[in-house]
Amino acid sequence: MLAEAKYQCALVTGASAGLGAEFASQFAPDCASMVLVARRGERLLALANELEGRHSGLKVYCFAVDLCSIDQRQKFFSRLKSKGLQPDLLVNNAGMGDVGAFASSDWGKIQSMMDLNMDALTHCCHQFLPAMIAEQKGAIVNVSSLAATLPIPDFAVYAATKAYVSSFSEALSIELADHGVNVLAVCPGPVHTEFGETAKRGEQDRNVPGREYFYVEAQQVVSESIWALETGRTRVFPSLKITLAAVLIAATPLFLLRKVMANTSS
Ligand SMILES: NC(=O)c1ccc[n+]([C@@H]2O[C@H](COP(=O)([O-])OP(=O)(O)OC[C@H]3O[C@@H](n4cnc5c(N)ncnc54)[C@H](OP(=O)(O)O)[C@@H]3O)[C@@H](O)[C@H]2O)c1
């Protein structure tokens, strides 16, 4: 392991695509070793090879795990322990959405979304925090969303899971203030990744007027998140336009937000 690296072991969930792959790439120069997790192991291996090729001395471990399954999570934790891998940076990025009316949603998909967005994220924090506290050193990046800041019809459960992530991260950050562990909630607006494909039901497409204007590149989301972590922030809304949107939402009374959101519903 590289003793001078900022992080001895960085664990990134959902590293097979989108923001997770970008987090892995941008954190890689600061890491002695990395653990990449997602279900599509072949994608993780391709990224691991690329990162090891680019950064001499970096060792990347890949684990194909369905994080919705508590059994698979527990087996994964045991395998990490048996390899002596103890993350001092945890990026809880894996997440999914579901677009459409709640009443007609598929329960299996809703359950998976809650398992992944909330249970798996919380379980990973619970698993890796004690060692960080013992070392008085560590960082947790929880990927939330701008969606955490308001109720979103046709995206109701997703927005609620992200409200959980933001609230949990804020409280954790206060609990850990004296333990040398930074906690950051990343709250992006829309980003072009595989997220939209996974979230939509069949061929349906939810066309929100003006939405395209709010898209931010994955690269910018991640670089601003790393900056926020390094400067000790607790929450970041990457890009100026998403920060302004968050400020506007926070300043709007709930009765007005309800009216605005009612007009976005299909
Ligand atoms: N894209 C956006 O507009 C946007 C906006 C705000 C917040 N976010 C948040 O950003 C995070 C990353 O999303 P993304 O946009 O990068 O989406 P993405 O391209 O769909 O990537 C999602 C990642 O999560 C992994 N994943 C999904 N289900 C999993 C499971 N059961 N077990 C393990 N890994 C699983 C996927 O890998 P496998 O399929 O290989 O398992 C993939 O690596 C999510 O938390 C999302 O809520 C996204």
TrEMBL record:
One of its GO terms (cellular component) is membrane. One of its GO terms (molecular function) is oxidoreductase activity. Gene3D superfamilies: NAD(P)-binding Rossmann-like Domain. The keyword Oxidoreductase applies. It comes from the Bacteria. InterPro entries: NAD(P)-bd_dom_sf, Sc_DH/Rdtase_CS, SDR_fam. Keywords: Oxidoreductase. The keyword Zinc does not apply. Belongs to the short-chain dehydrogenases/reductases (SDR) family. This is SDR family oxidoreductase. It comes from Persicirhabdus sediminis.
